[in-house]
């Protein structure tokens, strides 16, 4: 019933009104593996690294209650040490001791921060 005619890449319906553009399917989404290896998009701004180095866990020499793990982690992440300590206690209580196991592992594996000068 709708008859369309084409004039110079513009379609018109039988009343002479412009017809809506044809429906096209979206391009297929890239696979997750391809997204990992793709170059960053030029239109996206990525935050610049302020320290120039990657994340390293060091135990604090100054802000410690036991081994300095929470103090060092708080320094590395730039958050308040009290929030980390509360989270660790909650993880220990609610996680059947998982927080304590992670703390001891970090205490043994993480080196102590360099001595202040």
Number of helices: 4
Which parts are unreliable, with pLDDT below 50 for 5 consecutive residues or more? none
Strands ordered across the widest β-sheet: 1-2
Share of residues in helices: 25-40%
The ordered string of helix (H) and strand (E) elements is: EEHHHH
The termini sit apart by: 86 Å
Which structural class do the helices and strands define?
Answer: mainly alpha
Number of strands: 2
Largest sheet: 2 strands, antiparallel
User: How would you sum up the global shape?
Assistant: elongated
Report the radius of gyration as a whole number of Å. Answer: 29 Å
Global mean pLDDT: 77
β-sheet strand percentage: 5-15%
Walk me through the structure.
Helix 2 packs across helix 3 and helix 3 (81-94) crosses helix 4. The chain is built from 4 helices and 2 strands, in the order E-E-H-H-H-H. The relative contact order is 0.11. The longest helix is centred in the last third of the chain and has 14 residues, at 81-94. With 117 residues, it is mostly helical. The protein has a domain at 69-109. It has helices at residues 32-37, 69-77, 81-94, 98-109; strands at residues 5-7, 10-12. A hairpin with a 2-residue loop joins strand 1 and strand 2 (10-12). It has a two-stranded antiparallel ribbon. The mean pLDDT is 77. The protein is elongated and about 85 Å long.
């Amino acid at each position: 019933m709708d008859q369309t005619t084409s004039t110079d890449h513009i379609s018109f319906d039988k009343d002479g009104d412009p017809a809506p553009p044809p429906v096209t399917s979206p391009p297929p989404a890239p696979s997750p593996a391809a997204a990992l290896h793709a170059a960053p998009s030029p239109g996206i701004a990525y935050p610049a690294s302020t320290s120039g180095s990657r994340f390293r866990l060091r135990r604090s020499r100054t802000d410690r209650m036991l081994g300095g793990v929470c103090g060092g982690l708080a320094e590395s992440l730039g958050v308040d040490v009290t929030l980390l300590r509360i989270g660790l206690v909650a993880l220990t209580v609610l996680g059947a001791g998982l927080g304590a196991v992670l703390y001891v592992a970090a205490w043994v594996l993480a080196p102590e921060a360099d001595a202040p000068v």
